[in-house]
Specification:
With 280 residues, this protein is α+β, with helices and mostly antiparallel strands. It has helices at residues 2-36, 82-88, 116-120, 205-215, 247-250, 252-255, and strands at residues 42-48, 63-69, 92-93, 108-109, 126-133, 147-155, 165-179, 196-203, 219-224, 245-246, 266-271, 274-279.
């Protein structure tokens, strides 16, 4: 009886030893499998922050980033760097992009690239470039794709001094297609002077002529349109024709007549046989 119990104990111990050995082998196999499968490397790349139709001019708010696996990613995907973000601003999207889609270098054409203006312009439209300073150009906050009015401020000769300065809208609701010195020069050789910049507008042939005349008349300023539209599809700026605004319309003091000198009253005072004269 004791012999049988001894054999039974040995068998149980052997079974336990086998189970422990098998468990250790299983864990070792799992560790080796985990080590054999590499963790995919990811990279922050630039994507469309919203749906973009073909022909859109990219603005900073339309560019976002996300992490994607490098393996299998397109070779011309744009990594999220300050240089790539800055280079995309003002670029035209060749093909429509869905929200969240990676932006590929082959899908955009940059300002300064050969054929950029021809690709951006609508059929029958023209491109005209004007110079504006930081103040009249909204301190660099006007982006390609914005719609603006072009305001002319000039000193008009041959009229009264009170109305010698006038401002008027010479172009209304025109699209900005490029901004900055890189429009007329390659970005690598562009001047870094920020006091004056160029803005290129998409206009009709008649509007181009008006703009070129306005350049020689006085100072040009840009007024950004709201992205919202009023009922009927017309912008608020198009709801009524705008008349020139004169200096006298802004400052009533310029049109007011100069105050007249007060009338002087004279009183003769006779005292002790002498006469004196007092003026009030």
């Amino acid at each position: 009886m004791v012999f049988r119990l001894g054999i039974f104990g040995v068998l149980i111990a052997a079974l336990i030893a086998v189970m422990v050995f098998a468990y250790s082998l299983l864990n070792q196999s799992k560790r080796q499998a985990e080590q054999a499968v590499p963790v995919p490397q990811t990279e922050q790349v630039l994507i469309a922050a919203q749906p973009l139709p073909a022909g859109s001019l990219l603005q900073p708010a339309q560019i976002a980033s996300t992490a994607i696996a490098i393996t299998g990613a397109p070779s011309d995907v744009l990594v999220d760097t300050p240089q790539n973000r800055g280079g995309l601003t003002g670029s035209m999207v060749r093909t429509a992009l869905a929200q969240g889609a990676p932006i590929l270098a082959s899908q955009v054409i940059h300002p300064g690239d050969h054929g950029f203006l021809a690709a951006v312009l609508a059929p029958g439209m023209r491109a005209v470039t004007v110079a504006v300073d930081n103040v009249t150009g909204a301190n660099g906050l006007i982006w390609p794709g914005d719609n603006v009015d072009v305001l002319l401020t000039q000193t008009v000769s041959g009229v009264s001094d009170a109305k010698s300065i006038a401002a008027e809208v010479v172009l209304s609701n025109v699209r900005v297609i490029a901004s900055g010195a890189q429009v007329v020069k390659d970005a690598s050789t562009a001047q870094t002077n920020n006091s004056v910049q160029t803005v290129t507008l998409e206009v009709t042939p008649e509007q181009a002529s008006r703009c070129l005349v306005a350049i020689n008349l006085g100072k040009l300023s840009l007024i950004v349109h709201s992205a919202e539209t009023v009922p009927g599809g017309a912008t608020q700026a198009q709801s009524a024709p705008q008349q020139p605004i004169w200096a006298g319309d802004v400052s009533p003091a310029l049109t007011a007549t100069q105050p007249q000198m007060p009338a002087v009253s004279t009183v003769n005072v006779i005292s002790s046989g002498s006469t004196g004269e007092f003026k009030f």
